[in-house]
Specification:
4-stranded antiparallel β-sheet, mainly beta
Length: 123
């Protein structure tokens, strides 16, 4: 299993970024996928999850209405579109999945993680 995030960077408050997570080594279309973030000196925070087919999605209250999770199973890629970014969104963002591919709308039980991509939002 390999998960490789990209798309992070420095953006001003109110701006947008789109993160990508390229997946390989497993049947991507069979697995629910999630985004988790970790701000400096803080614990990890679950952000969003999408079902294997993309029909079901869940979001943390802190990002609901601003972030959109999506996936392209033909390209084995997971996305996170982030709009109206705030300084408190500054964090390293990770894609993650469970070994059994199950759907989780909370933090915990993830078996595989990417290396993360840094998002910094300036005020």
């Amino acid at each position: 299993v390999q998960l490789v995030e990209s798309g992070g960077g420095l953006v001003q408050a109110g701006g947008s970024l789109r993160l990508s997570c390229a997946a390989s080594g497993f049947a991507f279309s069979s697995y629910s996928m999630s985004w988790v973030r970790q701000a400096p000196e803080k614990g990890r925070e679950w952000v969003s999850t999408i079902s294997n087919g993309g029909v079901s999605t869940s979001y943390a209250n802190s990002v609901k209405g601003r972030f959109t999770i999506s996936r392209d199973n033909a390209k084995n890629t997971l996305y996170l579109q982030m709009n109206s970014l705030k300084p408190e969104d500054t964090a390293a963002y990770y894609c993650a999945m469970r070994r059994d591919g199950s759907y989780s709308s909370f933090l915990g039980g993830y078996d595989y993680w990417g290396q993360g991509t840094q998002v910094t939002v300036s005020s």
